[in-house]
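Title: Prediction job returns without error message
Component: structure pipeline
Severity: low
Priority: P3
Assignee: unassigned

Description:
Job completed but the reporter wants confirmation the result is attached to the right record. Sequence as submitted:
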Amino acid sequence: MAPRSNPTARQVRLGAELRKLREATGMRAREVAAFLNSTSAQMSQVELGISGVSAERVRRLAAHYGCEDEAFIDALASMASERSHGWWDEYRGILPQVNMDVAEAEHHATFLREVVITHVPGLLQTPDYARAVFRYMRPDLSEGELEPRVELRMRRREAIEGDSPTPYETVIHEFALRIRVADRQTAVSQLRLILDEIEAGHATVRIVPVDRDGFAGADASMLYVGGPVPKLDTALLDSPTGTLFIDAADHLNRLRTLFCTVKKSALAPSESRDLVHRMTKEL
C-alpha cells in the first residue's frame, strides 16, 4: 500500500496498537519484518500509520505476537479493513486534519462521554453559538474559513442524531450555560436546543450548579470516546496547542474515574433539564 502523506488519528492509532503488541514481546521491527518478508522501514511506516496494513496481516501479526484477545484482534482487523470515506472527508484541504479526526472518532464511537466547564459542548451547539466561539477564539479567520468550521460542527451531530445514534452523556457546568458568547437571542436558542436534544433522547445532560460545594474540576473538560473494546477507547483533551488524543491505558483509567467524580457533583438528568428550562424563562 502506498505511504500516506497525512494519516488520520484512527490510522495512527491502529499502527500504535500494532507497535505496542510487538514491543510487549520484546521483538524488534527487523525481526517482524523478516517474518513478513518485508523491511524494517516498511514496518516502521505501518506502526506510524503512514502505510496501510491488511486485515489478514493484522491477524498474522497478532498470532505471531501471541495475542489471544479475539475481540481486540477483530477490532484491529476491522480498522485495517476500512476503505470507504466518511462525510468528513469533504473538508480535507479546507480544514485542519484534527477537525476530521474528531468527527471520525465520534462516528466510530460506541459511546460518548463529555465534560465541559466553559462552553456548551460542540455536539449541542447552535450555528450562531459556534460561530461566536470561533470568531472570539480566532478573530483572524475569514468568512471562507469560518463557515466550514461551523458547518462541520453542525454535521458532527449526526453521531448522536443519526439512524444508529451513539449514546451521549455530558456533564456541563452551569457557568457554561450562563456565559453569553453572543447576544440574548443566541443564548435563548442555545438553551432551547439543549432542551430539544434532551427531550428527543439524543443526549443525557447533567448540570453542575454554581453553588455546588466541593467542586474542584475546573480543568476536567474532556471528550471520552468509547471504542469497540475498552483497549481502543480514546480521550480527547483540548490544549493551548490543539487537541490531544489520549490512548495510554493508565491515562484512560484516570479519565474514566474523573468523569465519574465530576458526574457525582452534578444534578440528576431530570433536575438538570428543569434548571435549563428555568434559565430559558429567565432570559
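Comment from assignee: result matches the submitted record. The chain has 13 helices and six strands.
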